[in-house]
Amino acid sequence: MAEEIKKYLSLSRDEMEKLNPEDCLNTSFILGQFVFFLQREQNKEHSREIWAKSEIDKLVAGKIESYSQYTKTEHKIANIARENSVVADYNSIYYKSQRRIARLEYIAASLKNLADTLKDIARAKMANIKNERSENV
After folding, report:
1. pTM for this entry
2. Is the pLDDT of residue 3 over 90?
3. Is 100 exposed, middle or buried (0-12, 13-18, 19+ CB in 10 A)?
4. Which of 1, 76, 81, 125 sits 20 to 30 Å CA-CA off 18?
5. pLDDT of 137 above 70
């Protein structure tokens, strides 16, 4: 499936315009399926992010109060993580999940836009075919 997706991502606007309506709709459907897969992956990462944050909160609960109220929470946690490798591990998981979520959101949105463009092209082509047929009658 990944190779097929890469093929569609490399299509230029001219190449998309040359596809027949059925191919546009099929391609749009395949891209939509992949967007759904990416959304599920994003949801898994979001769950991992929440879990890691919860574990961090439990581990730093007593120690975080020893820092100044003017110190940002992220800095407090980073300082605690320097002394506690478990906090550091959860913190790493937390930030990796955030970065992965951001990438998945961007890719999913880009693919959805491409799928929508292909649907629009298919609709326009079908409308043109319908108009041509009605003119020839």
Report:
1. 0.78
2. no
3. middle
4. 1
5. no
Model pLDDT, residue 130: 82
Say if residues 4 and 98 touch (Cβ distance below 8 Å). no
CA of residue 92 relative to chain centroid, distance:
20
Q: What angle do CA 77, 79, 84 make, to 5 degrees?
A: 85
Structure tokens at 127: 């409308």
3-state secondary structure the chain: CHHHHHHHHCCCHHHHHHCCHHHHHHHHHHHHHHHHHHHHHHHHHHHHHHHHHHHHHHHHCCCHHHCCCCCCHHHHHHHHHHHCHHHHHHHHHHHHHHHHHHHHHHHHHHHHHHHHHHHHHHHHHHHHHHHHHHHHC
Residue 72 has pLDDT above 90, yes or no: yes
The pLDDT of residue 62 is: 86
Closest to 42 measured CA to CA, from 113, 112, 102? 102
